[in-house]
Fold this protein.
Amino acid sequence: MLQFIRSKTHPKNIFFINAKSLQDKIDLGALLSHYSRVDKDAETLYKKEFLTTKHRGNKFYAKVFGHYGDDSISELVPHGFAVCLEGIPVLWSTYLLHYRTLSAIEKSTRYVKASSYYKPLKFKTNSEYNDKCKKQLDKHNIEYQKVLQNLSEKYDTNDIQKPAILRKIKTRALDESRHLLPLSIVTSLGIMANLRSWLNILTKEKIRNTPSIYVEDLIDPLIDLFKEKFPTIFSIDKLTYLQKSEDIIFASKLEHESLYDVESLTMPKVNEIEDFEIVYTHDTTVKYDYIPYVQQIDRINKIKPIREYEMIDYTITIPKLDIATFRDIQRHRYFTIIINKWDSRYDEDCECDLLSSPMSTAIDITIKGNLRQWTHAIELRTQEQGHFSYRKIFQRCGELIADRSSIDKEILFPYADWRDDSELGLGRLKAESKKKEDKG
C-alpha cells in the first residue's frame, strides 16, 4: 500500500506519498496521472479506485502509456516518494514548475471545473481581495455557460447525448473561458524530485520571495516537513549555507539589473517588440553548416531528431503572453525561459493584486532552445488535441524558425499540424471516440 505521510504540526494539504515496492511505484505514477483529471484529493482517489481494483496501476499504464503513447507519464513512476500540494493557487504552482529538475503533474483546468480560490489568513479581512477573486470567478462561470451554450447549439439533441461529444464540448468551453479564472484559483500538484533538487529549489524560493504569503503559507511549511522527515539532509547548517549562497547570488543579480546598460545588449528589449521575433541566433556559421545536413535525416512521428539538431540554437521573444498559455509552454522545462518579468511579490499589496488578477494577465518572455528541442515542442504542441492558444504560439515559432532557416516549414517540421483552429472542431473528439471504440 502507498503511505500518505503528513506532519502532525503543519498543513494537511502538504504531504508525502511513499512507495516501497515496484508495484506501489507503478500505482503512484498512475494515481498522480489520473489525479490531474478528477475532482478528488489524492488519498480519497487512491482508496476508492486503487485499493478496490487489483493491478489498477498496471492497467492504466498499459492503456495510456503502451496503447496511446503518452510517454510523459513515465516520469511519474518514482524512485521512492512524491510530494503533494493540494489547494494552492495556480500562481504558486507556476513558480515551482519553472524548475527543470521537477517531474510534476497538475490538476487540469480543462477536465476539472474550477470552483474556489485560495484564501490566505492574512487576506481574511481583505474585502477587496475577496471581492476581486469572486468577481473573476463569476466572470469565468458566465463565460463558460455562454460558450457551452454556443457549442451545444452546433449539434443536434441526439449527438449531445453522446458522452464523448458532451465531454469535449465541456472541455472546449473550459478551454475558452480559463483566461478569466483568477490566479488564486486552487489547484493540486503531484511532484517527483530528488532531495538535492528540493534543497536547492526551496532555498531559492525562500530567499527570492521573502517576505511573502507564498513563503509563509507554502515554502516554509515544505522546508519544515523535509526537515522533520529528512533531518540529516535538511540540516540547519546545510540550509544556512545554501541560503547564504543564494542570498549573495540573488542580491548581486538585482544590483546588476539596476546598473547594467541595457543599450549595450545585442538583443532588443522584449517590451520594445510588438510581435514574435527571433532576436538572436547563436553561431551562425555552425547553424548554416548543419542545416543542409539535418533537414535530410528521415525519422518517424513522436521520435526526437538526432543530436546534431542540438548544434543549432534559436532564441524567440514572445511579448504580451497571457499567463494561462505561458503555463502550457512552461511544461517544456528543457527550454531556457526568462520571464520579463513577474510583478513584485515582496509587497503584500502587490501579492494580493497579482493573486486576484485573471489568468489573462500578460507577461513578456524569451525562450532559448536548440532545434532538437524546438522540433519536439512544435510537433507535439501543434496537434489538434492541444489548447488552441498554445497551438498558435508553436505554429508561429515554427514559421519563424523555418523562415530564418530558409526551409519550408512542412519539410523542417514534417509532423507539425499547421491547420487553423477553425478547421479542427472539438480537438480531442477523435481521441475520445477512439477510446470508446477500444473499450467496446
